[in-house]
Structure formats: C-alpha cells, structure tokens
Amino acid sequence: MSLLILMALNCFCVMFLNKKDQTVAVVNCFGVWSAFSLMYWGGSGVSRESLSELFCVDIYSSSMVSLSLWICGISILVSSAMLNLRGVFNSFWILVTLLCFMLVQCFMVNTLAMFYVLFESTLVPMVSIIGIWGGQVDRIPSIQYMAAYTVGGSFPLLLIFMSMELNGGSSFMWFISAKTDYSWMFWTGCFLGFLVKLPSFPFHTWLPKAHVQAPVGGSVILAGILLKLGGYGITRVMMIFSYTLESFGIYAMSLSLYGSVYGALMCLRQSDVKKLIAYSSVSHMAFAIIGLFSCSEVGLVGAYIMLVSHGFISPGLFVLCGINSELVHSRKIKAMNDGVRAVPSLGLFWLVMIMANLGVPPCPVIISEVLTVVCVVATFPWAFILLVFYFILSGAYSFSLYSQLTRTKNKPKTSVLFNEVTLKDMKALYFLFYPLAEVLFKWDLWAVV
C-alpha cells in the first residue's frame, strides 16, 4: 500500500512541473519506485507478508512489481528520444504511468475478482497507446484482434470467479478450499485466458500484429511485462487450487513444445525485425509454460527465470529496433543494415542482445532452458527431439539476423536521419543490462524451500 501511495503522490507533484522537466522527473520517479519495491523482496520460498486487507506479496509478486516499474520507466525513457512521440509526450507518460499503477495493483491484490478486473483493465491503456501512436493504418484491426483474443480467452475465467463469489461468498485467494477433483473443463476455463496472454501456441497470432503496429515504448511494455501477466496468473491459480500434473497440463506442454519450434521457424522467414522479435517471444514463452505445467520446483524456477530475463532482453531488442528504424525509416533487416553501418556501435549492442536472447552463457536464459529441458525430458523423453530442433533453429535465425544487420556492402553508405546516436538514445539499453546480471547471480530466488 505504501508503494501505491508513493506513486500517487509523486505523480501529483510531477503534474505541476513544466513540460520539459516532466520527462526527467517521471523517469527518476520510476527509478525511485523500483528501488522502493525492493523492500518487498524476501528470501526464497512462498511465505507471505500481509500489507493490508487488499494487498499482499511474496517473491513471485514482488519480482513482477519491480519488473513492471523498471520496464515502464525504460519505456518512457526510450520514447522521449523518438521523434513520433515528442509532440504529445505528456499524454504518453500519463498513460504509461496509469498502466503501471494498474499492473502493480494486479500483482499485489489478494482477491481473484479484483485480480480479474485489473487484469482486463490493463488492456485499455495499451490499446490507447497503440491507437494514438501506432505507426500504420492497420493499427485499428490489430487492436480489435488483440482485444478479441484477450477478452474472449479470459471470459471463462470471469464465469468461474463469478461462481465463486455467488456460491462461496468470497474469492479471497487464501480462503479457498483446495480440492483435487476439478474437471478438465474447469482447468481449461482457468488457464485459457492466461495462455492467450502469454501467448501460447496456437493463440499467439495477435502478438505479431500488435507489436508491428505499436510504438517502441508500447512494444517495450507489451513484451516486457504484459505478457508476464499470463505466467503470474497461471502460478496463482495453480497455488490456489492445488493443481497437479493432469491431462490439460500435458496438452499445454505438448502444444508449447510444438509452438517453440514453430516460432523459431517463423523467425527464419521474417524480413521485419519487429515480427522476428515477436515470434522469438512466442518461442521463449513456450519454455515458461512448460516449466509451470511440469508442476516441479525445477520447472517453476526455470519458468520465472525465463519470465524475468525475457522481460529485460525482449525490450532491449525492441529499443534497438526503434533506434535503427528511426535512422533509416524502415524495419526491414536489409534497410537496418545501413543504420548499423552508419553507427557502428549499434553492431555491438545487437550482438550482446542477440546473444542474450539466444541464451549464450553466461546469460540467464541458458539457466532457464537447462532447467526446463531437465524437467520436461524427465516427464516426456520424446520431447528432447523437438527441443533439439528448436535449439538448431534458434541459433540459425539469431546468426542470420546478426549477419544480415552487420554485413559489409561495397556500395556507399546510405544517408540516415542522424549522424550519430546520442547517449540519451542508448541509456535505455544501459539500464537493461544491470537487472540481467542480478538475475544471473540470484537465479535460485524463486525456489521453494
């Protein structure tokens, strides 16, 4: 509760500053809020610290709160350097702050009904950001696609929560009696909305459309934190209803295995960098789904390492894509090559972020992939064949992307918008590296002891 009060007071004070100082003040506020949220981090395990009658946290919710604050601050920082947002930037940071406020509450509430309301409410600021600052005329169909998938997929979840309120009198998370005789349809209703949000194969088709139309700041938030709502929701429902490995989980794991290979194949076919990053997110979220539905401690730790690591790596790739597209006015890989040649330092950043996305040691993604492979192969030995295909294809599209972005041409350099990329443009990338190092050294934080 104190974090929410601090956020509200800071936003009220920022409103009285002039427009030029508001950007710096808001970014600094997000830094302060992120540091303040670390107070809620406890040791490993699921012991809870009650904050009030409405909010309570554990290591899973506190890590998501810190991730939300950090990523929303990065979004405002990188968007302040983009030309297509400078005219109405105040409206942008207000929407992002409102979205962050909803996300923090969503990760801290202790009633399922309030969680559902906030879960769906986060769609409104995101749709507004895409609708107002979306780059192309197709942004309205992409908004409709995104809203239809998200609301339609979570509608069965609403019916379940309404039934709990009407029959049980409460949807308080920790007063629900655990049972083990729930039907297959019940688990489908509980998990479908979260699988769409992650997204899981075959419910992923809205994600590339939304990323292509969203501005850079919107893509940073969408990939960095909104997708993680699905993983967090699955974790909460599993804990509340004492889920064990059942037929639904086996189907979800099987589809995710195929989805990881499918996402890597689609990455190989893309010429649009934003679509490529979006499909790589589909592949990586498949590992989080496999880890969660394995119902093992190893899988849970691997899933949260992937969720948090991807929350910093994917925004970094979108930031680089935004900087490059501003230089050459295109998201095509061949056109972005001219931007990297004009600003050679971008080549180094592309190398680091692609390696982190691929999971090259010592990047924390490799820890998640190893733990996930261990838990899924122990359950389904045949899954190792699909995982081998995924790792081969993942290396292929990563190497292809970097080689196309940095290859040398004989023709003269193409003129670009800027002669150089300023420090302000690169600050967002610098601020994404430190949390990755923290995840690497504290990867066992989500272990249950």
UniProtKB/TrEMBL annotation:
Catalytic activity: a ubiquinone + NADH + 5 H(+)(in) = a ubiquinol + NAD(+) + 4 H(+)(out)
NADH:ubiquinone oxidoreductase chain 4 N-terminal domain location: 4-104
Location within or outside the cell: Mitochondrion membrane
Membrane topology: Multi-pass membrane protein
GO biological process terms held by the UniProt record: ATP synthesis coupled electron transport; electron transport coupled proton transport
One GO cellular component term: mitochondrial membrane
Domain NADH:quinone oxidoreductase/Mrp antiporter transmembrane: 111-390
TM helices/strands, residue ranges: 24-43, 63-85, 92-110, 116-134, 146-164, 184-207, 219-242, 248-269, 276-294, 300-321, 342-360, 366-393
PANTHER family: NADH-UBIQUINONE OXIDOREDUCTASE CHAIN 4
Identification of the protein by name: NADH-ubiquinone oxidoreductase chain 4
Organism: Crassostrea sikamea (Kumamoto oyster)
Name of the encoding gene: nad4
